[in-house]
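Let us work through a complete example step by step.
Step 1: write down the sequence.
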Amino acid sequence: MHSEHAVLCLLGQKCQDENLLEPLHKFINIKQKTVQYSPVDKLTDALLAILLDCDVVSQVNTKLAQEVAVLKAFGREHCADQSTIQRTLSSCTSENVAEFQQALAQIFATHSRTQKHKFGKNKPPLILDIDLTGLPCSKHYEGSCKGYFADCKPGTTGRQLYRVSASQYNEVVYQQVFPGNTGSASFENFKVMLEAAFTVLALKAKHKKRVLIRLDGGFGNAPIINYVLAGGCQFVVKLGNAPRSNKLCQSVEADGWHSDECHQREFGLVQAESGYTTVESRPVYQIGVRHIPPQKEAGKVKAKAKAKAGKARLTSKIEVKSAESQPQPYQYNVLVVRVDGLDWVKGARVAADEILLQVHFYDSRAVIETASIKGDKQGLGLVKRRKFSLMGQEMLVLLAQLAHNLVEWAKGWLAELEPQLATFGIQCWVRDIFAIAGKIVFEANRI
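Step 2: predict the structure and record it as tokens.
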């Protein structure tokens, strides 16, 4: 038979050969009557809709129902109606979410490349990136409230997605949905997420020392840093306290700043006391980074000043003139670093290349964030699919997590035949590669 998604059919055959989706049937027990299709079958249909690049669940009736070859490749003869899939998602409870997390953990343990990471003294550490991203939605939805949502106007409501990902392999280890006012600085939430990620990874105590956690400035407070330090993990985190960063960077002498020509900034080793838990065998270093923020165009500043009414106009013009005459001050940041192999004696002059290496390592976090979170939002429709029920939304997010990891594993399976396939992102795979048309021949229900 002809299929518009022939490559996706190959993935379905691979999943059947490996019994990859079997843990879903084993662990998930949704209390809903089975008439024609079981609740897990409906979740499978929702997963296929994500891989077929359906923007919303309702497109199951128009896109997935027509792809008979895809359904057959995944062991399904027909797909359920979109309305029954919606009811199944809405009827999910917190127990079902926990069961789904357990099923994903078993799938991850069996098929992920992260689980096969080799720990050793001369081996690179396992890098875990932890981040928070917004899922805007109506204020009437469960768990929706005002919070920070990037690229959205103030007052936007929604939920927050907490994610732990393995950077070297671009696999999602664990994620969970929180209310919209949840922030990165919450120590209790961070503790829950990190412990859950370690449970999924099933790490031994000695291997935790070979885990490197990379965090942005939202997590850069003393409780979180002390907790990671006490757990024995390595970490690189940007300090979230701006006044403290400015004060610490003042301790760097004039000749202690080194130029980073690639990014037009300067960096140096901060010699001030860190104030964190000190462990002799685990030294903590702080790297100061400063740069001049880009200046606003004078024309735009004057235009905004003229727009103000009444007496504010005269005051704004005076402020604009004074701002134009004064040089722009530095903007300071501090990286808190605890990485094995760094032996920088306090007071000694450290080679600039060694410090710059840690700064560039933190910079690479932005690339991982783009490939993982933005890739899922654009390629898997992470923001577009919304449910009124918080648990229903959680199930959709977990389905997207499974779809993300399936795409990453498909890269490895097919890259053995064509290495270039491993270079494409999530959106390209879902939109273009899975959508390659072809003729599918089944023999004894196998491609």
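Step 3: interpret the result. The chain has three domains: 2-110+385-439, 124-292+331-371, 294-327.
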